[in-house]
Specification:
Layout: H1 5-9, H2 29-43, H3 49-67, E1 74-77, H4 80-90, E2 96-100, H5 109-116, E3 121-125, H6 130-133, E4 138-144, H7 156-166, E5 169-173, E6 190-194, E7 206-210, H8 212-215, H9 255-269, H10 273-291, E8 300-304, H11 309-316, E9 322-324, E10 327-331, H12 338-348
Parallel strand pairs: 2-3, 2-4, 4-5, 5-6
Antiparallel strand pairs: 1-7, 6-7, 8-10, 9-10
Helix pairs in contact: 2-9, 3-9, 4-5, 10-12
Length: 354
């Protein structure tokens, strides 16, 4: 059964004016209940490692449904940077990586570290120029589907087409996209997503989708017991048999995080994300119109705030916003309504025009 936007929203108990899902999502009631029960059981000495494994697999399967890939192409992790670093370490010496100027550092720093070691060369270009900057010497294009600082949406068609023409692989961070808009992970060689933002999960649960052909080019440098073909039979060395699927790239899970992640991601995997996108972008566009700032076509609204006055005014009015890169951001999710747009406008009204 597909859950519509309104039916999805009722699973959340979020205060008015919470506009910061681009920083940290708010868990649905099911996740809160699951985490509370786990904490209570832990406090009594009743913890079942097998139960945590079940939560991980529920999460993996739900994320696979969410982004349209088989579950055996999904690896679990802890942070975006860990997965990106694995890709960076796997690239052959002399590879050229193309990154986006101002992109979130987890999609940039792992490649710069390898460049400092003399293994890779890294080029950095503005998002609008990314597709045309891909050339025959480019090995990998690393970018975010939605830019964290500005909310700008990448031109996926142009980037993917250019990468295919020049034989470059694509690594896309969907952290600021998955949960409020449909994501088709099959369009990329690999995607990475931390679930604690728009997917409203605890921090410490991330996902990576890997196309089979690209997986053959990667080295599971973080392999541990959880990457084994038989997880519980892989606790001790020296014999190693890694999973044949994307599970060989799994990072040992932070168990409690997955207890809350499973019910949260399952909710979004069952939702009508086209309707969620229409709702969130509709609110964002309305705020942009009222503030006379450019709309991005995403759920994030961001505008220059070099002196921090807009952010301070929003905070004083009880609006949960965020400040990044000399800009102020607000983000609309399933629980937000037009009244949240009005809260922002009321908070900014006493101050000078943007």
């Amino acid at each position: 059964m597909v859950i519509d936007r309104a039916a999805l929203a009722v699973h959340f108990d979020v205060r008015p004016g919470y506009l910061s899902s681009c920083v940290i999502g708010v868990p649905p009631r099911e996740a809160v209940q699951a985490l509370a029960a786990d904490l209570a059981g832990w406090s009594e000495g009743h913890r079942d490692p097998g139960g945590y494994g079940t939560a991980v697999e529920r999460s993996r399967e739900a994320f696979a449904r969410l982004v349209g890939v088989p579950a055996d192409q999904v690896a679990v992790g802890s942070q975006v940077s860990v997965s990106a670093a694995m890709v960076a370490a796997s690239l052959p010496a002399g590879s050229e990586v193309l990154v986006v100027e101002g992109d979130f550092s987890s999609m940039v720093f792992p490649f710069l570290v390898q460049e400092e070691q003399g293994r890779l060369s890294v080029r950095c270009v503005p998002l609008a120029e990314l597709a045309e900057a891909i050339r025959p010497s480019t090995t990998l294009v690393s970018f975010s589907l939605v830019q964290s600082a500005t909310g700008a949406l990448a031109d996926v068609d142009a980037i993917v087409d250019a990468a295919a023409r020049h034989g470059a692989a694509t690594l896309c961070d969907v952290t600021q996209a998955a949960g409020w808009m449909p994501v088709d992970a099959t369009r990329f060689d690999a995607t990475i997503c931390h679930a604690y933002k728009w997917l409203c999960s605890p921090r410490g649960a991330s996902f990576m989708t890997i196309a089979p052909a690209f997986a053959e080019r990667l080295v599971p440098v973080d392999a541990g017991w959880y990457a084994g073909d038989d997880v519980w039979g892989s606790c001790y060395g020296p014999r190693m048999r890694l999973a044949d699927s994307a599970r060989r790239f799994d990072v040992s899970p932070a168990w409690p995080a997955w207890i809350g992640t499973a019910p949260a991601v399952e909710l979004f995997a069952s939702a009508d994300l086209e309707a969620v996108r229409a709702h969130c972008v509709g609110l964002a566009d309305e705020l942009c119109r009222r503030l006379d700032v450019p709309a991005t076509g995403t759920a994030i609204v961001s505008w220059p705030d070099p002196d921090g006055l807009a952010f301070a005014a929003l905070t004083a009015a009880g609006v949960a916003a965020s400040a990044r890169a000399g800009r102020v951001r607000v983000a609309f999710h399933v629980w937000n309504e037009l009244s949240d747009v009005e809260l922002v406008l009321d908070a900014l009204a006493p101050h000078a025009a943007i």
